[in-house]
């Protein structure tokens, strides 16, 4: 379905591209003086999706103006629930034609304020589009709509012998994961979402439908032109609405074993990680939790692990391959002074362990009821991980901030989960300062300011420092080309 824009006010769009921020679409055409949408515009939304699927109620809007981050946000002016891609396309064309901002909404688990409606506009809650439309078991691929979450997909795949490997802590929507460039505990072995997306269906800001790798295609490799799929991974809703994703699946391993392993120091745990990778042990998961986080997990998830810097590990393969991997790993960790080594073979035990890891965020929040969490997210080359982690742990101790460290250390990626009193501006300020300093330290070590949470509202300055002037200019040109009126999730990333 192809829809064309009727009238684009060229002068206004030029102005906006030249001086974003100076020129606001608030009040333009469809919006009253208070920044509210006109009655006629709301009627047009209802004509597309049906009245029950449009809301302008304050509580609903406020719910959609907020993700799991500490960013203080504005609600959108309306929320709509499209039922299919054709409706998404018509909604985009309507909003674009009228100069109204569009904000795609997945499950709202983002950690950088990605869904905040900084200029108001229409929030598009995509959860009603939740079908798994195609499963090609022999080709290891599946096609999902934007409302499908990672857990729902794996439940669907249960008896297929295949699984979807990308597992952020929250049960996020898969297209939201594509939009933020998400990853999880399995990416050291199976890659991030970036490595596991083959094709995307995207509604462009003006309503046109793009198939980034060609309609219906799901090949393993191709050398056909620019990679448009990759362009939309990490685009955070600023280039278009992802309405379908073709994903790569992996065969379920023959055997799996998990373990926890406590260390005398942060250094010993991280050194072991680097050595395990250098020894080319094909570890499936290797996660670091510091003493504070272990203590919180013991309480929250009823574990009885040592309160010490700890690695959670998992190995996949045949029984024979597992024995070898385990032996190799044990030798390395013992050389680094590890104690309290315990293996979990039964799936129930393993699930309990990984549920505890995935719930580390909530376990830390439970330490200080009423507080909100903020998670840093740097990622560095693996050889620099020990120095940055040890230094960060020391700084966290002396900062006066409350929080713990968890990390997908196999990828060189870790998070300080900091607890913030939402009413304490001074504490907010210190958290932001800590985050910025850590980001800059990662950049100095040739790393990135975000391994997986994205730029959103909070890291735009760091992105500039990371990517440089020409990089930023190229990104801005791509943005202007796809979204000349700057209406797709304005205020984010750039
Ligand atoms: C407890 C907890 C643990 C977490 N652990 C991890 C982790 O281990 N790894 C990790 O990577 N992240 C993690 N996250 C962050 C979060 O789960 C991810 O960023 C996730 O990918 C967000 O998906 P979502 O559907 O909730 O997106 P939302 O929060 O709804 O949106 C995020 C951004 O994507 C855009 N967007 C959403 N859907 C679409 C779409 N269909 N098309 C275009 N743009 C869209 C939005 O506009 C917004 O800019 C965690 C969050 C929590 C709360
Ligand atoms: C988005 O819509 C779904 C389905 O109606 C709903 O369950 C979910 O709570 C909505 N999101 C928010 C933030 O309200
Ligand atoms: C394009 O990029 C995506 C995302 O990084 C990747 O998964 C895909 O394999 C790439 N496609 C080709 C044809 O190289």
From TrEMBL:
> What does the UniProt keyword field contain?
Acetylation, FAD, Flavoprotein, Mitochondrion, Oxidoreductase, Signal, Transit peptide
EC number(s) per UniProt? 1.1.2.4
Cofactor(s) listed: FAD
Q: What is its main location?
A: mitochondrion
Q: Which GO terms describe its molecular function?
A: (2R)-2-hydroxycarboxylate dehydrogenase activity; D-lactate dehydrogenase (cytochrome) activity; D-lactate dehydrogenase (FAD) activity; D-lactate dehydrogenase (NAD+) activity; FAD binding
Q: Where is the FAD-binding PCMH-type domain?
A: 72-252
Output the PROSITE patterns linked to this UniProt entry: FAD_PCMH
Catalytic reaction(s) noted: (R)-lactate + 2 Fe(III)-[cytochrome c] = 2 Fe(II)-[cytochrome c] + pyruvate + 2 H(+)
What Gene3D superfamilies does this protein's entry cite? 3.30.465.10, 3.30.70.2190, 3.30.70.2740, Uridine Diphospho-n-acetylenolpyruvylglucosamine Reductase, domain 2, Vanillyl-alcohol Oxidase, Chain A, domain 4
Q: Which InterPro entries match?
A: FAD-bd_oxidored_4_C, FAD-bd_PCMH, FAD-bd_PCMH-like_sf, FAD-bd_PCMH_sub1, FAD-bd_PCMH_sub2, FAD-linked_Oxase-like_C, Oxid_FAD_bind_N, Vanillyl_alc_oxidase_C-sub2
**Is the Acetylation keyword given for this protein?**
yes
Q: Which residues form the signal peptide?
A: 1-17
**Compartment(s):** Mitochondrion
Which Pfam families does its entry note? FAD-oxidase_C (PF02913), FAD_binding_4 (PF01565)
Q: Which GO terms describe its cellular component?
A: mitochondrion
One Gene Ontology term of the biological-process aspect is: lactate catabolic process
Q: What does this protein do?
A: Involved in D-lactate, but not L-lactate catabolic process.
Tell me the subunit arrangement.
Interacts with CSRP3.
Q: Which family does it belong to?
A: Belongs to the FAD-binding oxidoreductase/transferase type 4 family.
> This chain belongs to which protein, by name?
Probable D-lactate dehydrogenase, mitochondrial
């Amino acid at each position: 379905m192809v829809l064309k824009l009727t009238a684009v006010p060229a002068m206004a769009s030029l102005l906006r591209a030249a001086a974003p921020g100076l020129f606001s679409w608030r009040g333009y055409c469809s919006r009253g003086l208070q920044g509210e949408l006109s009655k006629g515009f709301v009627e047009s939304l209802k004509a597309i999706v049906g009245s029950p699927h449009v809301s302008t109620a304050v509580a609903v809007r406020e719910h959609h103006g907020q993700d799991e981050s500490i960013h203080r946000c504005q609600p959108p002016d309306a929320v709509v629930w499209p039922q299919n891609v054709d409706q998404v396309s018509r909604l985009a064309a309507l909003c674009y034609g009228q100069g109204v901002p569009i904000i795609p909404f997945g499950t709202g688990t983002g950690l950088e304020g990605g869904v905040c409606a900084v200029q108001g506009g229409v929030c598009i809650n995509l959860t009603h589009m939740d079908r798994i439309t195609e499963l090609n078991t022999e080709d290891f691929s599946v096609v999902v709509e934007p409302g499908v979450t990672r857990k729902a997909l794996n439940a669907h795949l249960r008896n297929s012998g295949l699984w979807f490997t990308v597992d952020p802590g929250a049960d996020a929507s898969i297209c939201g994961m594509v939009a933020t460039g998400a990853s999880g505990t399995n990416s050291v072995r199976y890659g991030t979402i970036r490595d596991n997306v083959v094709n995307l269906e995207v509604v462009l800001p003006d309503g046109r439908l793009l198939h980034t790798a060609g309609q219906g295609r799901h090949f393993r490799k191709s050398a056909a032109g620019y990679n448009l799929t990759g362009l939309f991974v990490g685009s955070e809703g600023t280039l278009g609405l992802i309405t379908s994703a073709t994903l790569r699946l992996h065969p379920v391993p023959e055997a799996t074993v998990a373990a926890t392993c406590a260390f005398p120091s942060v250094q010993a745990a991280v050194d072991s990680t680097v050595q395990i990778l250098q020894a080319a042990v094909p570890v499936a998961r290797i996660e670091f939790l510091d003493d504070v986080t272990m203590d919180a997990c013991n309480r929250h998830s009823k574990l009885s692990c040592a309160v010490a810097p700890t690695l959670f590990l998992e190995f996949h393969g045949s029984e024979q391959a597992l024995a070898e991997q385990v032996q190799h790993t044990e030798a390395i960790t013992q050389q680094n002074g590890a104690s309290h080594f315990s293996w979990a073979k039964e799936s129930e035990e393993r699930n309990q362990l990984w549920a505890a890891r995935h719930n580390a965020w909530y376990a830390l929040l439970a330490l200080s009821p009423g507080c909100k969490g903020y998670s840093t997210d740097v990622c560095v080359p693996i050889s620099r991980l020990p120095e940055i982690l040890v230094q960060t742990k020391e700084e966290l101790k002396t900062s006066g901030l409350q929080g713990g460290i968890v990390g997908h250390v196999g990828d060189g990626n870790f998070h300080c989960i900091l607890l913030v009193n939402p009413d304490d501006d001074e504490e907010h300020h210190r958290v932001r300062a800590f985050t910025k300093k850590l980001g800059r330290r990662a950049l100095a070590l040739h790393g990135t300011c975000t391994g997986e949470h994205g730029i959103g509202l909070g890291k735009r300055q760091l992105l500039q420092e990371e990517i440089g002037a020409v990089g930023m200019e190229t990104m801005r040109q791509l943005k202007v080309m796809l979204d000349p009126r700057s209406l797709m999730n304005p205020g984010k990333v750039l």
